[in-house]
Amino acid sequence: MSRRRIGLYYRCAAFLVKPPMLILFKRDWRGQENIPDHGGFITAVNHNSYLDPLSYAHFQYNTGRVPRFLAKVGLFKSGFVGFMMRGTGQIPVYRETSDAAGAFRAAVEAVNKGECVAFYPEGTLTRDPDLWPMSGKTGAARVALLTRAPVIPVAQWGAHEAVPPYAKEHKFRLFPRKTLTVVAGPPVDLSDLYESEPSAEVLRVATERIMDAVTAQLADIRHEQPPAQRYVLERERTARPAARPDAADRTPAPLPQSQDVKEISE
């Protein structure tokens, strides 16, 4: 199968979600021509708001290629949301259990069947104080190197203004209407790594390329220069296990303009 038909559950979800998305938000969508018409592929998406999955799914639904997200298994047990996630074919991630590898196998199978699998390579909402992408986990790279499917970098911006990450008060700031920007870039070139053994170093290189591409897309949207070094969540957890940067009420400080430019665990 080269292309997955949009099924009944996905159409029902779109029927419920698209009207409020169109009413509540303005859209700035670019790069939909980079979403492949046929064949399996992977998207790597940055994550700075709980609204991100709806914004990105809306963007890609309109191309006719629906994504299958990897999401923590708890979401599949939560009433109507879980019912729709199962019906739309999302992939549960069983972290730190004997079933943890099941998500990887399901992702590979989906891509090989001609479907799109969407990864948030950071594995969670970014903790970077200015909401730049953090270091990535290797799940997307692993699937890409095994299937040799194209990896499309996707950057999102604006959802954090409507649904700020980690906000303790005013968790929804819908008015005035915010603009949700979603930009898909050209495929990340990993072809020189296809014949290599998937060692830790090869996976690191592939993951860095993917995160560099996503970050470049976001830098183009924001017209800002990203930090020289990417935020490393594991380092923060080691130093301060309970710490979280208070990004909820921060607006990223503008820098000099540059060129206009649920992830499985390792």
How would the blueprint of this fold be written?
Elements lengths: L7 H17 E6 L10 E5 L6 H10 L5 E6 L6 H9 L3 E3 L6 H13 L3 E4 L19 H9 L3 E7 L1 H4 L15 E7 L15 H23 L10 H7 L27
Q: What's this entry about, in short?
A:
With 266 residues, this protein is α/β, with parallel strands linked by helices. It has one domain (8-239): Glycerol-3-phosphate (1)-acyltransferase (3-Layer(aba) Sandwich), CATH 3.40.1130.10. 35% of the residues lie in helices and 14% in strands.
Can you tag this structure with a few keywords?
266 residues; alpha/beta; disordered C terminus; 7 strands; Glycerol-3-phosphate (1)-acyltransferase; 8 helices; seven-stranded mixed β-sheet
Written overview of the protein:
InterPro entries: Plipid/glycerol_acylTrfase. The chain is an alpha/beta fold and 266 residues long. The longest helix is centred in the C-terminal third of the chain and has 23 residues, at 200-222. The chain has helices at 8-24, 52-61, 79-87, 100-112, 139-147, 159-162, 200-222, 233-239, and strands spanning 25-30, 41-45, 67-72, 91-93, 116-119, 151-157, 178-184. The chain has a 7-stranded mixed sheet, with helices on both faces.
